[in-house]
Design brief:
122 residues, mainly alpha, 3% strand
């Protein structure tokens, strides 16, 4: 019966991503957080750099959905450290998302991006 829980989490993530991706595109354009063509960028026109909004929030909502569903919908957990691992995953993802937003705005050089990825992995 775990398929119900996974279908519910998938549905939540799908609906939110369909709603938030266009919002990220609009918000990026409105706030001027866009990639402009030129140099390495071969696209035409302005492209929003806020696509991470349409990935992070649906991911977080799907994870939280699985936490609030009835336990009978989920397979039994055999890992006593499951919640610790989940908190680490969510914290690392949150740090990556927030740093990504800052990078979209300020366009950091490579070394702070590598440092942020290392911190997220820790």
């Amino acid at each position: 019966m775990a398929w119900r829980a996974y279908a519910c989490a998938f549905g939540v993530a799908l609906v939110l991503s369909l709603l938030l991706t266009p919002l990220g595109a609009w918000l990026g354009t409105r706030l001027g957080i866009v990639a402009r063509p030129g140099g390495r960028r071969r696209h035409q026109g302005l492209i929003s750099r806020l696509g991470g909004i349409g990935l992070y929030i649906p991911f977080l909502a799907a994870v939280l959905t699985l936490q609030v569903l009835p336990p009978s919908w989920l397979p039994p957990s055999l890992d006593p450290k499951e919640m610790t691992r989940l908190v680490g995953l969510v914290l690392g993802s949150t740090v990556a998302f927030l740093f990504g937003l800052a990078d979209d705005r300020c366009e950091f050089p490579a070394w702070p991006q590598y440092l942020a990825q290392f911190l997220c992995a820790c």
